[in-house]
């Protein structure tokens, strides 16, 4: 294993009574794009600010390329951070905004070099035509490009991107995401990309770190996480729609869904000896749930609660006694709101979670892909 570009060790941070980081550990490998995926309030911004050196921590250490930088201030860390809020300087035009860091005491590049670098970076982000404009005349998408250019022009060891595309519309977002990947390929730069958007995260990242309640819940490639999600929280954040959860009770070797015909053989998960009566949640990727034309004797009864038209396909929400789930189905499947329907969980699919703690109980499980 080579030395990770960034290593965070046991970070703790509270804002008043609010514990934002609760002993957070994370490693970002060199030359990778890692997405830090988690809901609002999970601690993503606090994590990035800690890496940048802009947050005073109660505990923990920060290493950059193996060097302990915990006590080094931001200007000595050689990382660039891009915020959702852009942080452009309104009194300067675009080219001076981009050049700003290069003129700072830390860099103090000569003007010819600055001009070359600003020009090249502007080309990369397709904002060459905007260089003489005042930043307050720019659109949201243009501002965001300038903000990224500001960070990029320094060629730091590492980029910290805090929801850099969240404020943009879908088309711009996809375009800029592709450009970020391109920049990453050309410069082999390491990026930690914070987002609450599952699609955005898997589109840009080599690896994901799932964060919730100030702790990293799981890291891995999307395939690894799909194959074995660490806990219920991860299941809720992954997939589109995300994991379905059904309540089940253990009865001699089976997991029984309330009101459901289907019984889940616990031996399939290597967990045949769970205590009878124990309450479980059975998590299943929607891809492993068959809905509609089910004549299997053990199909479960449900009803169609909602149907979202997505053009080529539809997302249906099915409610049943054991739980509800959402799943994408082809448009030809004619579900209407209020229809009765049946569904069946594919044999061998799914994971067992403890109903109280959300921790994964089963060591095996799977399907989907
Ligand atoms: P994220 O970026 O994932 O939304 P943050 O790191 O911004 O998460 O915040 C983590 C938690 O800390 C949230 O509950 C947030 O409300 C709280 N928090 C963040 N910054 C402050 C602050 N300056 N003052 C008080 N609470 C804060
Ligand atoms: Mg944030």
Describe this structure in words.
This protein is of the alpha+beta class. Helices cover 21% and strands 33% of the residues. The chain has eight helices and 20 strands. It has helices spanning 44-52, 94-99, 111-124, 140-152, 170-187, 198-204, 222-227, 232-237; strands at residues 6-15, 18-28, 33-37, 59-64, 67-68, 79-82, 158-162, 190-195, 207-212, 215-220, 244-251, 254-256, 263-265, 279-284, 289-291, 300-309, 313-320, 323-330, 340-345, 351-354. The protein is elongated, with a radius of gyration of 24 Å. The mean pLDDT is 90. The chain binds adenosine-5'-diphosphate and magnesium ion (MG). Magnesium ion (MG) is lined by residues 44-45, 162-163. Magnesium ion binds at residues 44-45, 162-163.
H/E element order: EEEHEEEHHHEHEHEEHHEEEEEEEEEE
- Tell me the span between the first and last alpha carbons: 29 Å
The percentage of residues in β strands lies in 25-35%
Q: Strand tally, please?
A: 20
Q: Which sheet architecture does the biggest sheet show?
A: 6 strands, mixed
Computed Rg: 24 Å
Main CATH class of the largest domain: Alpha Beta
Please work out how many helical segments DSSP would assign. Answer: 8
CATH architecture annotation of the largest domain: 3-Layer(aba) Sandwich
Ions and ligands: adenosine-5'-diphosphate, magnesium ion
Q: Regions with pLDDT < 50 over 5+ consecutive residues?
A: none
**CATH superfamily placement of the largest domain:** P-loop containing nucleotide triphosphate hydrolases
Q: Trace the largest sheet across and list its strands.
A: 6-7-8-3-9-10
Q: What general form does the structure show?
A: elongated
Average predicted local confidence, pLDDT: 90
Structural class: alpha+beta
Number of domains: 2
At CATH level 3, the topology of the largest domain is: Rossmann fold
Helix coverage percent: 10-25%
